[in-house]
Amino acid sequence: MSHSQTHDVIVIGAGFAGLYSVHKLRDQMGLDVTAFEAASGVGGTWFWNRYPGARCDIESIHYSYSFSEELQQEWNWPERYAGQPEILDYLNHVADRFDLRRNIQFNTRVTSMVWDEENSFWRVGTDDGKTTTARYVISGAGNLSVPKEPDFPGVKDFQGDVYVTGNWPQEPVDFTGKRVGVIGNWPQEPVDFTGKRVGVIGTGSSGIQAITEIAKQAGHLTVFQRTPNFATPIGNGPIDPELYADQKARYAELRKEARNHVQGVPLEAPLPSAIEVSAEKRKEVYDKRYAQGGFRMFLSTFADIYHSKASNDTAADYIRGKIQERVVDPAVAELLSPTDHPYAAKRPAFENGYFEAFNQDNVELVDVKSNPIERVTATGLNTTTDEYEFDVLVLATGFDAMTGPLMAMGIVGRNGERLQDKWADGPETYLGITVNGFPNLFLITGPQSPSVLYNMPLAIEDHVDFATAAIAHLNEHDLAIIEADAEAEKAWVDHANEKAAESLLPEANSWFMGSNIPGKPRRCLVYVGGAPTYRAICDEVVAEGYRGFELSPAVELAQL
Ligand code: FAD
Ligand code: NAP
């Protein structure tokens, strides 16, 4: 017996992706949509990452939705790069302004998702024990929404408070390795580190931001660093009202320029080559962009630093030189200077006083590459050579990125195939948004799409627009199933791998390559061909009647 589905579309998540999806499907397409969100509020990344210093690294005028001119005109950012509280305020405002909460079920985690072949819809199981069905599922479950499980023993033995940057609660919790999902909305009291002995593990973007702030309060801060990062200044500050007024007047034009830029930000163009200019000119360019801050150091200096090792070395040397200028103790400066990967082979980290924190008497840097962490103890941690004591442990150890949130959802496609099995050797997608064998499922900013190499709100809007246009197309043509062809998927995976191989990303161990998680297959998880090129490919696919997809009626319709 066949059944009709409960909803047209189920959306997972209420971050940038989930919120826009609900608005678009419900208010612009008139569809019946329901969303599930594990957290108690909207915000996604900006709900969960409440650690001190959390801030975006793309200027807020650009790191924001573009879909509503009214929204972008009425919202005012206080700083060039907004902090987490302001971004969470913004997403709460979006939810209120477009009345999105009534379609979102909070505190509800999707735990299973099974394609029902007989009825051509998805059966979505949630942790409240219910099953909900929908013809389509749009996953906005995020790329960086599953914190990495600590890979050293003993965390549960620690007697002090443990905080995880990617799951920063209102109050310290017993470490369970899982998100609690029951914390309240902003505002909240920030965690007070005053006078405490704090240990931080991890010096990626999150650690760098958190360390800078915790160092201002802690009685003693011990930073456990395995790999130093090429951090450069963010260049934050108050927004210049005149510049802001001008930007708002030209918003549509700025968004167009942003969408044509590989980073999704209208940054100044780089010079062609770092090694074809004189040493003086090179220094002048680096000095200017380093001082201006943010992605300009990477993307507005020299075009070939992402592809040519020789050019990249000039940027890496420059940044190492800056670290040596800023850190008083030469031995500490040396330890903070990355040497094992090219600049920007990991996502560049941005800072505001990070290196100066190591000049403070209360801050100590411990190299856990040469002396690895053996275990966390009741009172601190042991490395292979030393014992350290602290009252509070902060884990800034990153995420099971891109695939982690999807693998955790128990997704089962056609013929009982589990996504975990299909992706056992690494993710395989068509265009980074669909998967052969998993019809009517759209992965917003999924693996092998530009995602975090681009400005995420724009990447999300592009993907939601693609998914919703496909659904509209099916509805208009009395069709109900869209599925990526196996050959098209294989060609996309090959293309994405070729593009990755042309870049410097494989030269680093990072979450981009899946290599931050023990046992995870080493595979480039992002599309390196550039968002403008990617968008042109997607547009062509649609213009050619969804090239590479099979479109068909629902099974019960076909049987009539
Ligand atoms: P998320 O914001 O991650 O939201 C996903 C939501 O899905 C979460 O709320 C989660 O609880 C929910 N969810 C997941 N699984 C389930 C499930 N099974 N059931 C129910 N709900 C589920 N990108 C940039 O472009 N620029 C930046 O400056 C930037 N800064 C960042 C800073 C930090 C600290 C981090 C961690 C990431 C940053 N990013 C940045 C990337 C950031 O993740 C994206 O910009 C964006 O916020 C992602 O939005 P999203 O809606 O796709 O996913
Ligand atoms: P990350 O970049 O993966 O960094 C994790 C850190 O933890 C690394 O220093 C890593 O060392 C260390 N680590 C992990 N396991 C360890 C272990 N067992 N022992 C010792 N050290 C260990 O994670 P993240 O800092 O959370 O950043 C993830 C991404 O989120 C960023 O790349 C960025 O895209 C986004 N983000 C952006 C901002 C922003 O500025 N807007 C801020 C935060 C996050 P190794 O390098 O040696 O593995």
Automatic annotation (TrEMBL):
Please state the span of the N-terminal signal peptide per the UniProt entry: none
Instruction: Fetch the Pfam families from UniProt.
Output: FMO-like
Q: Which InterPro entries would you find in this protein's record? A: FAD-binding_Monooxygenases, FAD/NAD-bd_sf, Flavin_mOase-like
Q: Which Gene3D superfamilies does this chain map to?
A: FAD/NAD(P)-binding domain
Q: Which cofactor does it need?
A: FAD
Superkingdom of origin = Bacteria
Q: SUPFAM superfamilies attached here?
A: FAD/NAD(P)-binding domain
Record key words, sorted: FAD, Flavoprotein, Monooxygenase, NADP, Oxidoreductase
GO MF annotation terms: flavin adenine dinucleotide binding; N,N-dimethylaniline monooxygenase activity; NADP binding
Query: What is the similarity comment for this entry?
Result: Belongs to the FAD-binding monooxygenase family.
Q: What is this protein called?
A: NAD(P)/FAD-dependent oxidoreductase
